[in-house]
Amino acid sequence: MMIDAHQHFWKIARGDYGWMGEHVAPLLRDFLPDDLRPLLARSGIARTILVQAAETEAETEFLLERAEATDFIAGVVGWLDMDDDAFPDRLARFRENPWFVGLRPMLQGLPEDDYILRPRVLKHLGLVAEAGLPFDILTFTRHLPHVLRALEAVPGLRAVVDHLSKPEIAAGGLDPWREHVAAVARFPNVSCKISGMVTEASADWVLEDLRPYVDHVVECFGEDRLMFGSDWPVATLAASYAEVCNAAHVLLGRHFGPAGMAKVFGGNAARFYGVEGR
Questions:
Q1: pLDDT tens sequence across 126-147
Q2: What is the mean pLDDT of residues 243-258?
Q3: Distance (Å, rounded) from C-alpha 46 to C-alpha 252?
Q4: Structural contact between residues 18 and 54, judged by C-beta atoms closer than 8 angstroms
Q5: pTM here?
Q6: Fewer Cβ in 10 A, N or C end of the chain?
Q7: Which residue intervals define the domain Amidohydrolase-related in the entry (predicted)?
Q8: Cβ proximity of 274 and 101 under 8 Å
Q9: Percent of the chain surpassing pLDDT 70
Q10: Rounded to an integer, what is the distance from CA 168 to the centroid of its chain?
């Protein structure tokens, strides 16, 4: 079963998508299950992991409602305030919902690059690890040294790096991203999503622009710790759903046979997020 391990839905009228603006004008409309359904069918994808796009519990509740009502959603990666004293109780409450399968703070947009090392955040990250709850790491390259320190402090954390940690593909920059990603990959409980590349590339990107970055994470993580994600609809700023899927298939197909591709395009995500039976 093929799984898209990273997609979003939103309703603009909800009003809590603080990162949106005219710089992403094509995204300033509702994107909901009926918009994605035909795209999944054309690409042969059966299930998705729905990921938060707003830093509010209200949006997480909205996504959980969508999951319960939508046949192809396997689970939701939600948001909670990790620097709130009430975090343990909030986490326990959301974990009672069977559709809540992971947690993601939006580290890339926070004022402090080392937010994840705040004492209370690090303490709560330990609770996430103890619960065995998947943790999505949304970062740029500059955040990775701080992420490494957090992983050292909480070595049992089951985590996944979203979007290859957004390397500077448009500029062709590989370092220091390459070194930091290799260091993160040394933690055996950490995976990486093959996602979000097209929006980090130049407007006229071609497959060869993406290849060095895919090759590196393949070398670092291998077929058991990579998972495909479309990052739809954000990716539509640079490519169609089909183009994103095709790029991943072509670039990964150079490395993996049918068994490995089945892991990256479904099996790994099902295991990581615990949605095998859905």
A1: 999 999 999 999 999 999 999 9
A2: 98
A3: 20
A4: yes
A5: 0.97
A6: N
A7: 3-274
A8: yes
A9: 100
A10: 17
By the 8 A CB rule, do 78 and 90 touch?
A: no
Residue 70 CB neighbour total at 10 angstroms? 18
Q: What's the N-to-C CA distance of the chain in angstroms?
A: 10
Tell me which H or E stretch contains 7: strand 3-7
How confident is residue 278, by pLDDT bands cut at 50, 70 and 90?
confident
Characterize the bridge pairing of strands 100-103 and 73-78.
parallel
Number of residues written out for the chain:
278
Rounded distance, CA 248 to CA 264, Å? 10
- Give 78's DSSP letter: E
Q: How far is CA 83 from the centre of its chain?
A: 21
Handedness of CA 64, 108, 166, 140 (dihedral sign): negative
Residue 123 tokens read as: 């303490």
Distance between CA atoms of 264 and 262, rounded to whole angstroms?
Answer: 6
Please report which residue ranges of 26-72 form alpha helices under DSSP H. 33-43, 57-69
DSSP 168-222: -TTTT--TTHHHHHHHHHTSTTEEEEE-S-TTTS-TT--HHHHHHHHHHHHHHH-
Residue 62's CB is within 10 A of a number of other CB atoms, namely: 20
DSSP 144-159: HHHHHHHHHHSTT--E
Residue in the structure block whose two tokens are 């939006």: 106
Domains and CATH numbers, the chain: 3-273 (3.20.20.140)
